[in-house]
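User: I'm curious whether this sequence folds into something compact or stays loose and floppy. Could you predict its structure so I can see for myself?
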Amino acid sequence: MQAPDDAEARRAIAPVICYPTEALPAPDPAWLAAAAEDRVPRHALTVPPRDGRAFRVRAGQVFRISCPEGAQVGDLNLWNAHDLAERFFSGKTRALHGTHVGRGDRLWSCLPFLRPMTTIVADSLDWYGIDAHGGGVHDVIGTRCDPYTHRLLSGGDYHHCCHSNLTRALADETGLTLDAAEPHVHDVLNVFMCTGFTRDRNRYFMKASPARQGDCIEFLAEIDLIAALSACPGGDCSATHSSDEATCHPLLVEIFDCALTANHVPPPRNGYDGGHGR
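Assistant: Here's the prediction. I'll summarize afterward.
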């Protein structure tokens, strides 16, 4: 269709930020620093390549996800440990903080709760920023590799996609059946994954993760959590996922008490009264 005479004028209209966040209190730098003080290790677990594991974190504890052997992408899900209906809301986190998250950003829970589930208190890849291709690290724009899309695109079945890994991990942690656990699995934080959108058609892309052995990201649990982490079958996601082709490494999860743990007060759920105009 032919463009209208004022096409360029319409395109030139200045954008407006959808959700101005000036009213959101930014984490105090001293508070962020305190999350690194008086560390006491409480638990550690290894997530094997192409598999998933779940773990529990008490409010006020810090959990660290790291690459002990080499670059490896992880898909992270979060739930309220006392109510699986409250879970991580990647879409609202993206709307508030942007397509990629880092130190000082929070991972928010779904409606009607809408409160911080974690705050990112450290990130060894904070230096990366946005590269020349438009790529950044730790995205909240992707979903998770899953066996249904794999079936749709390839015609075959693959059982170690992140969706399946997270489903098994949640079932193992809670005692739910796979059928009961699967609906609780949700869109993820893609830890260590480098992603963006192509300039020509705005297609979601991935590229080799800049993570190296020892890189890590740390979260303060704002509420009691069940977390599940999948070591993606794509490895560093430089070429493919949903297959056994990529070189994959484990991920390490460590949980600590810190200077904030003893006195941490979980944030209340969102204060909206629920009237919805009635």
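Summary: The mean pLDDT is 96. The CA atoms of residues 170 and 176 lie 8 Å apart.
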